[in-house]
Design a protein that fits this description.
The protein is of the alpha/beta class and 509 residues long. It is built from ten helices and 20 strands.
Length: 509
């Protein structure tokens, strides 16, 4: 894929002292790496060096970080179209709100930061001559980007203006949006029965009312659709997926580790609850209907999302990968027992990487809930498991020509009665189905294809396995992607003879 300029947008810094500290860093903290990684959920930390997403993009993808007394100073001295498009930029929206530069500080607002992002983005586009930019944001920075996409650009270019300027949709400016731990649904607390949220939103304590529904509605809604008060059923996690900016261009990285978030000496994690990254609850960290991955990382810090191999690998493959793979469970039939609650777990790994790209499991408070089929639902209603991106250009073993990923799937049931679980027939750490699908994606005569086998059917160690024979049959003749069903192995036959995993592999353009 074409390499485009990348603009990083940092997260919330709090009050004046936090802002003053943030602006001291020329890269707003996005240059910070880490030296800690945990070995499993209860394991002791070990040394593992991660060099920061900025440095990794410079090393792996030959990006440039152009600073000559200041990135904007440098841009202002360059001719249009003369700057390398393969470049990294920092949106320094907090500078005008700091007290350390001598000028009278301006009160921060998401709207003004988003308006300034549009100004900065247009300058980067003009100086590089690039078609669009990628936006990469941590925490609140993702809300600034969404305000840019959903409010500022529609309000500024809602009607195409005459003349040489033809951009008027967010998709004309932004190619991809990647968010780390952004509170897309706001920030809520697991304690206080809503009192803390009401006090925060009423008095704007520390400027944190920007994470409440009223302020979110204001900065995410264009003027043409905005009402004085937030509508009763408005959901901040919903992002209009129209031509302005397609949902497939958004990727949300969701953290599931509240334990390792150190802010406020751990009080934040206790207030928000275990079903979070320590600041943002899991269900609020993604935009409905977009690409996403769950990783067992905290909101920030030495074990944080931005400072993680998991975050970087998902970022790099979303921005530069050329193959997209989705997997769904289809045609499942469950025993006719209304007291059974069904859940699925999914873990994705890619050959050659020391991390899990995606981990949605009950132990991290984020299993995939399988809803009982209603009479009006289609019989083959799928259970979405995962979407991941891969790169045909990534390094792999010399003896292999395919891209390999594995999908570990568990399906388990719990006995639920009168809103409580019962354990008389429960076997801890066991499941009703547990297997791993090994998928190899490759090209035959320039045509994309794939092979898949269940680990339970292999007779050799996985590292020695090489796919042979005919690839999966493409069930859709359309060009650019293929679809195939992989029947569940013998251990999954309890879900019916037609139960299968549906794979869809497509080229990314």
């Amino acid at each position: 894929m074409e390499k485009l300029p990348i603009i990083y947008v940092r997260g919330f810094a709090g009050g004046t002292s936090g802002i003053d500290q943030a602006v001291d860093d020329p890269f707003y903290g996005l240059n910070l790496g880490s030296t800690h990684v945990r070995v499993g959920g209860q394991g002791d930390p070990i040394y593992y060096q991660f060099e920061s997403p900025l440095l990794r993009l410079i090393i792996d993808y030959e990006y440039s970080l152009l600073v000559k007394g200041g990135q904007e100073v440098y841009l202002d001295t360059q001719a249009d179209g003369s700057v390398d498009a393969t470049s990294l930029w920092i949106h320094r929206f907090y500078d005008t709100s700091a007290t350390t530069f001598g000028a009278e500080p301006v009160d921060f607002s998401v709207e003004s930061a988003a308006q300034d992002l549009l100004r900065f983005m247009e300058k980067v586009l003009a100086k590089t001559g690039a078609a669009r930019v990628h936006l990469v944001a941590h925490s609140m920075g993702g809300l600034i980007c969404r305000s840019l996409i959903s409010r500022v650009i529609p309000d500024t270019y809602g009607v195409e203006t005459p003349g040489p300027r033809q951009r008027h949709l967010a998709a004309d400016f932004v190619d991809r949006l990647f968010t780390y731990g952004t509170p897309h649904g706001g920030i809520e607390f697991d304690v206080g029965f809503g009192l803390f949220e009401r006090l925060r939103d009423e008095f704007g304590l520390g400027g944190a009312d920007i994470f409440g529904p009223q302020r979110m509605y204001e900065y995410l809604t264009p003027a043409a659709a905005r009402q004085p008060r937030v509508p009763e059923k408005w959901d901040a996690r919903m992002m209009p997926g129209d031509e302005n900016f397609p949902l497939e261009r958004v990727f949300c990285l969701v953290g599931t580790n509240a334990r390792d978030y150190p802010a406020a000496h751990g009080l934040s994690a206790k207030a928000v609850g275990p079903k979070s990254d320590g600041l943002v609850q899991i269900q609020n960290a993604l935009v409905t209907g977009t690409n996403h991955a769950y990783v067992h990382r905290s909101h920030s810090g030495r074990y944080g999302l931005v400072n993680s191999e998991e975050g970087y690998q998902n970022l790099a493959r979303f921005l530069f990968g050329d193959v997209k793979v989705t997997a769904d469970l289809v045609d499942l039939e469950f025993p006719d027992d209304d007291e059974l609650t069904w859940q699925a777990e999914a873990q994705v790994s890619i050959r050659g990487l020391p991390i899990l790209m995606h981990e949605q499991v009950a132990a991290h408070y984020c299993p995939i809930l399988i809803e009982k089929r209603r009479p009006e639902d289609p019989a083959d209603r799928p259970v979405p498991l995962v979407t991941t991106y891969m790169s045909s250009r990534a390094s792999r073993p010399e003896q292999s020509s395919t891209m390999r990923y594995t999908l570990h799937i568990r399906v388990l049931s719990l006995h639920e009665r009168t809103r409580g679980f019962f354990w008389e027939d429960h076997q801890e750490q066991t499941s009703d189905f547990d297997d791993t699908l090994v998928v190899d994606v490759g090209f035959v005569d320039q045509q994309m294809t794939a092979w898949a086998v269940w680990a339970s059917q292999l007779t050799t160690p996985l590292r020695s396995y090489r796919p042979t024979g005919d690839p999966l049959t493409d069930e859709d003749p359309a060009e650019g992607f293929w679809v195939a069903r992989v029947p569940l192995p013998a251990g999954g036959r309890l879900f019916g003879d037609r139960a299968a995993l549906a794979l869809r592999v497509s080229r990314v353009v």
